[in-house]
Amino acid sequence: LLTVTMFLSTLTPKFYFALTVTSSFISGLIFVFEWWHFRKYGTSFIEQVSVSHLRPLIGGAESSPPAPAAFSTGENEASRQNMPECKVWRNPLNLFRGAEYSRYMWVTGKEPLTYYDMNLSAQDHQTFFTCDTDALRPSDTVMQKAWRERNPQARIKAAHQALELNNDCATAYVLLAEEEATTIVDAEKYFKQALKAGEMIYRKSQNCHSQSPQHEAQLRRDTNVLVYVKRRLAMCARKLGRIREAVKIMRDLMKEFPLLSMLNIHENLLEALLELQAYADVQAVLAKYDDISLPKSAAICYTAALLKARAVSERFSPETASKRGLSTAEINAVEAIHRAVEFNPHVPKYLLEMKSLVLPPEHILKRGDSEAVAYAFFHLQHWKRIEGALNLLHCTWEGTFRMIPYPLEKGHLFYPYPSCTETADRELLPTFHEVSVYPQKELPFFIHFTAGLCSFSAMLALLTHQFPELVVVFAKAVSTVSVTGLAMVSPRLWGILRSMGKEHLVSL
């Protein structure tokens, strides 16, 4: 120690300058490498090495995240690359314009639908309810113009004109049910009239669809109208409390038109079955539609998690689980929640009522905030009904992000998280709603540490260059404090130091 203290007293300002410059350079290189590793792999290299190699050496338990193979069997690289970014989907559970959206606007004075959302609906209506043969029928010609009208009153007026020309114009009844009816009961009456007219037109189209491409296009249009009307009738029955009737209509619809699975009628069925608490039937629907070849949705992922949570949530306690470990059923439930959260990380805040809900839009972006709003709006009651389910979600959902790759554009269990999600959600959701931009992962500790170390050593190098004598005095003072600290820790060591060089220590 005497040699060390003598060595410190002989150091020059040039040495301190060289030391701080070198340390700044080395810490800067470490910081650059740490940042690069984090951007590429989502973890700190130093933390990863300490967990993987150092912790087992000192006897610590290595915690490895569950393997994702059980969930990602069918997700290959080709499907991930071909998955379109930010494709907007029709909301399977969208509300009625006149009976629900308009009533909200009358009460609050806030417009629940954005222009972008309504414009997408107008395009959907023109695609679903029009065809090239509309020019042959005056009522369909009027309705073709009605779907393109921006003013709601103009659309309603055109629908009445179409009914004056043809009392069996199914699409006119559809428009009036959606926009003129101010209650669900009135909407259901219009849809029943639309169903009667639509079935008659559909039978006629079936008889002559093979005669020409125009007749085939007309059959396709009449099929769309019939399916749309039956689905909305099922939704009316669900809203009016006739849930078993709604389930029957949906099941018949899915059986009669199996090729229209992309309309996601099964999501309406899942919600109705959950209301009936028919969990075995819910599991059967999930077994059919939670398939690797079909696009996932928050409804499928979170319903699967809810069923797994239902088996353990009533007796689940985080304190008990931390002591005895998780059982197999609890592990399955936690993994299902992790899977759901990775698919759409915005949902838990709505289910846990950490964020306020708004009316769901007519279109949603899968994995986005708009889908989270639409799911939670209808399914929050089902999570509340199962005792302990929300508690289990609260205890586990945040831990998911330690296992999700970052940035989420890399993907893990699902196709890469779209980078344009936030922009599209802001177009779909009303301006008074604060759009969720989660998930965000904080930078690892060692990136902050190396950045601070690099900045601190660079500042010391600059100070040493500008004020060399002052920095030398400061360094010697620090060494004095260090030696004094050692003396406080060990009186015996202090006695040895005194005997070896009392005068030198006083000079320091």
From TrEMBL:
Entry keyword set: Membrane, Transmembrane, Transmembrane helix
Listed Pfam families: ST7 (PF04184)
Subcellular location: Membrane
Gene3D superfamilies: Tetratricopeptide repeat domain
This protein's GO CC annotations: membrane
Protein's organism: Regulus satrapa
Major localisation: membrane
Family to which the UniProt record says this protein belongs: Belongs to the ST7 family.
Taxonomic superkingdom: Eukaryota
Protein name: Suppressor of tumorigenicity 7 protein-like
Bilayer-spanning residue ranges: 15-36, 445-464, 470-490
Membrane topology qualifier: Multi-pass membrane protein
